[in-house]
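Our consortium's second objective concerns turning raw sequence data into structural hypotheses that experimental partners can test. To show how far this objective has progressed, the report includes one record in full. It was chosen at random from the queue rather than selected for favorable results. The single chain below, 115 residues long, was entered without modification.
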Amino acid sequence: QVQLVESGGGLVQPGGSLRVSCAASGIIFSIYAVGWYRQAPGKQRELVATISSSERTNYADSVKGRFTISRDNAKNTVYLQMSSLKPDDTAVYYCNANFRAIGYWGQGTQVTVSS
């Protein structure tokens, strides 16, 4: 039974901060690379940040310097710390865990940036 469960989304004001989490079960978490994706209404899903099994990270240009991805293998959890949030960051945020050709998706958590 493989599960990825996102949490931590909510409503935040522009300029604020939020941390979303992705908790995994049913996999050997430490060997999986994890990516955070987001999808806004009327737009395609886009890659936001990735972290490899060796904790190498990459970020989309739109979030570089504002978002930080990290992982805690002991907790089978990956985090996305978001700061200096903008209305354009509003989206459903999804995590994806992948190892070679095997990948899993969570159900997503809503992040809304608005005054």
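The partners drew two points from this record. The chain has a mean pLDDT of 97. The radius of gyration is 13 Å. Both points have been shared with the crystallography group to help prioritize constructs.
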